[in-house]
Amino acid sequence: MKKLLILLTVLLVLGSACKKDFLNIDETNPNSASAVPANLVLPAALNTTARIITNPDNYNFIYLWYGCWCISGGYSQPANLTQYNLLNSAYQGNWDNLYMNLANYDYIETNSTSAQSTPYKAISKIMKAYIYQTLVDTYGNVPYSQALKGSAATQILKPTYDKQQDIYDSLVVQLDKAMNLINTAPSDAVEVGAYDIVYNGDMSMWLKFANTLKLRILVNQSGIAARASYITGALATTPHTTADYIGAGEGAMANPGYLNSANKMDPFWENFYKQDGSQQADGLGYTMAGQDACDFLNDNNDPRKLLIFAPYSGTSIKGNYFGALLLGTVPTTSQLGPGLLKAYNQSAPLLTDFESLFLQAEAVQKGLITGDVKSLYESAVTQSIIYLGGNAAQAAVYLSQAGKPLVNFSEATTPLETIITQKWIALNGIDPMPIWTDYRRTHFPSFIHFSQDAAKLNATPPVRLLYPQTEISTNNDNVVAQGSISLFTSHIFWDPFQK
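-> structure tokens emitted (499 positions)
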């Protein structure tokens, strides 16, 4: 069910490059232009990022491991996932595609040398930080300072690996530089306009996107006491009131103009539906509701209940526990709902307004920034409900329920748990990486039933993925230099639970 990239990506030179040259986007092709203008590369690069991040096949392990989704009883469950027995070949396409995507943003940045091209340079720097953070949160140490040098005067096709904390620190610096570029852009700077398929050239929104991404990077480290002074200092380099981050209605949503045509629809939608409206084989009949998510929605009278999942009978939803011996089939379990699967041309979320608001709520709760934590939290939940198809009135009733400490913030016994648990349900089917990261750094939600497979290798899911086989084959010495890597003990540096 893997999908081809949308037609826009034919503009990217990387499409025909073989693996050993994937860092080189300037590979000579007598049938291609020697240089592609940045305004043509940018929409293709942004579209590719959206397809990588939002295609559920790329990160389904997160939804399955953390109670969001499960497999229908009519299918065999993937043993490598139920047993946490991942090999180097697992999800290796994510690594390869993210680095190829990085090469195109790097191309834009490198070729945006004039003051007038500042907007293109700023956007490319922001998106490089976005992708590198995803790579670090997945693998830890990765190629960074020597990466993307395949077309340099002195080519580096086997880049060394940088330490993950050093990369995180550098990303904060790069985001600060991107924000400075936006703030100091000359009056005659090029208008990006429709070439920007996220914010239509609104650089004030890219400024908020960059600052929110910076906040995410810093909040991820907030469980490590030794990073406290660093986080405080890093926040001080740019404005950090709640008005400086993505707010309600300001989410980063990519849409190149999806068409009701094969390989040109929204990648999430097309994973489950064909252009004629019929279901993809092994789509909705294969992916079902997770019982943990159903329990949370049912127990808390959540208005997102019939938006995240479809009822299997009347207004009832039900799921499966991943790895269980006996699984319910389609007639007795819920499929994904209309709040997630809206239309073939729905926009692809890169960073939603409600994730930003949850991040701000956590940052205020921890004393990193100032603001009203309860207001931010309630705004986050409200925007989640609205995004899925509900309304503010439903949100108000939901948030005011008595005896619901994971809903009503005034009754929260552990505020951080309430924030992260609500963030977990809000990002179900929308953005999996923060779900994985949040659990590893907080161990919330606290009620997840992990794989029920008796043959699983560990009580809890892996804390990272293994370096991909493609990287081992082409850059083996530098992979070996990282030492012995374990799925269960090689924690990402920001993980406060590492031993």
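The first helix runs from residue 38 to 54.
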